[in-house]
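Protein modeling request. Please complete all fields; requests missing the sequence field cannot be processed.
Requester role: graduate student
Desired output: 3D structure, token encoding
Chains: 1
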Amino acid sequence: MSFALGATTVASAVSLSLLSASPAFAQGTAQQGSTGLEEVVVTARYREENLQQTPIAITAITVEDIEQRDFTASYELGYTVPNASLRPAQAAFGNTMSAFIRGIGQYDFLPEFEPGVGIYFDDVLHPVTMGSMVDLLDLERVEVLRGPQGTLFGRGSIGGAIRYVSKKPEGADVGSISLTYGEFNRLDVRASYDFGITENLFARVTGVSKRRDGYQDVFDFACAFPDQAGTLPRRIFNRASGCKIGTQGGEDVTGARAALRWVSSDTLEFLLTADYLNDDSEARADTLITVARDPNTGLLPGAFQSWSNAMEAQFGVPFDERFLTSDPYKSYATYSDPVTGIAFTPRTAIEQKGVSGKADWRINDQVRMELILAHRKFESAFATDADQSPLGEQTVDGRQDFDADTAELRFSGRALDMVDWTAGYFYYNGDFQSAQQVSIGAFQPPGATFLVNGLNKTESENNSVFLHTVWTLTDKLSFTAGVRYSEDKKSEQFDNTIVQSTGSAKDEHFDWKAGLDYRFTDWFMAYASAATGYRPQAFNPRPFQVTQFVPVDGEEATSYELGFKADFLERRLRMNLAGFFIDYNQRILPVAGIECLANNQGQYTNLVPAGTPGAVQDSLGQFCVDPNGPAAPPGATVSRTFYDNIPAEVSGVELELAFRPVEGLTISGILGYTDFQGDELDDPSLLGPAVTQVFSDNPIYVPELNWNVTVAYSFGVANGGSLTPRLDYYGQSEICPSLRTNVTIATTNATEDQQCADAFEILNARLEWASGGAWTAAVGVNNVTDKEYYLNKFDLSVFGQPTIEGQPGRPREWYVSFTRTF
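Delivered output (822 residues):
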């Protein structure tokens, strides 16, 4: 806490000294045509207000910024938000965005875990992480709120919230059409039209189509390397093919949105919105990083060596390093098993439909009522090939169905001429069905096609009430206070073939927020706040035996924040700085490993005393042997998936800067620093009795640093037009998908570099011409330096399997775009 808040205090003192040093800082807001930065209006507190006068840590990303940065997918927004880590989830989790803010979030797509970051589309909650990787369609802006949220709107979220705000129908009879063409046959078409139907009934329709070939080539191993392929079947014979059988990472997205707005009177209006998205994209780009082996024997871990021996006996090919590629943009995946004959379609598909209605009634000058009703459903299908080879080490086919209803009733107003208040009720009910077929060669029962052919059903419900108040104590000093009560229920019907069980959980929680803000001048405001947040109880969604299907306690956190927002130099320099400390006193942490065998009653069946010949020690410190004989230890254990509740402390600093030194030139940037200290670092035994050392510095999926610098210069050209060259530089430190402990490194020879996604830096460039009227054209290059990097990695070696996969980021790509407004 002392580092984060201390840094903020020092920066605040420096800024205050600057304020007193020069009278130039005391000027008011920028006038039309001046060199000042534009005012940004947000509605995070459900009233329009200047971002610089909003006493919360919030980043607002305008539609102009989204277009100029060539952002088309939701995860790219994270590049511009300090201490936000947004990225497409690894290939095994389908159309999912893993979202973390200030070290708190969720990467899994299954509904047994609730998201740590709330996602809202026009105030409608998207309740699960799956389906959150969306196109940025017809937006006005995106607001990213950092820290616990819940006393103002929606469902409580422990890490933060992302609010997508769409353009409302205005009846202005205006529209636009945009066309982008680029590398990998990229073709994006976007169009929108806003028009009036009657004097007080307005409509807005929007459509998008995105097509792009995959950026990772898939080759037939037997064709490319016949001398190393044994008797594996060849898949392509055309001599002009170059042995290429397809690609991964391609896009095929179609979407539409329609909105009707009826302004009944000056005090009452209704908004009806429907949206549709059909994403039939290819499987995610995926690369086999390493073949993990037992560090002592050099063999594949556990039963996988026996499986590899069987593959060599049948096809003349073991599973080994021959399937590694030196190029992350190449793969040998087949999404099939040559033994059982199963074959899955490589895709990451989802079809979403949603409808919502909003009534906005200004009852009188003091009270406003808003009612939001929404229904959303999606169907998803995806497949993964963990070994990225023609052998069937692990292949998965997943199908998901989701159906949800949400309702929110909010009243807001002003009382006693000094209190702005919001009170509301929120309801959510969702049904999530997940069916997965999983083939793991080493664990297949004799003659079986699948290890798992599961069908799991999860029903979730939330009822909440909340109250938020802002007390204007003086013309400069305000006090914020809010409370929330939540009741969550979750029920499980679980059947993954291995484990059949049911479960239910219920949580009740009380959260609060308190804060002070003081406006020293019209252009300098400081604030301090404290807030709590929680995440409901969960279940282990991937048990390998009945001992692992257990409920997981929920999460709780108390966050403290101190910051300031300031505009200097006649509003040409903007600086927002925040420091925070989070007492993360209940935290769900995945604990991977291996476990001795148990029966359906949860009793271990193959335990032996320590020192028994051929015995294997599992992650719980137990010793066991293969029930078929102590001389065959590879069959003594199964993979262990488990989730523990271990406290942590998180501190950090967030800086956002924008500078316009002269007319036309804008320099902006962000910097986020997170220091995450889990109790397991001081007491490794919290991860299990066999764990004595933790070698990881950072928590899973959380980078220590992220940053962005943007430079753009706009100058006039003939006929009233403008030309704007622009550079965007993004970076972040490494992220790891699992903890490295003495137990995990004892079972795999994988290195930290292989298990973690390295730090990366990306440079994008763009040149835009605007006619000063209806036309805009741009040419750009993303990833100018052709940096090879990984968006994430999927480490199965910590579960006793021999693979680590990585999803490579996109290589260098060029594009040209044209936009016509009318």
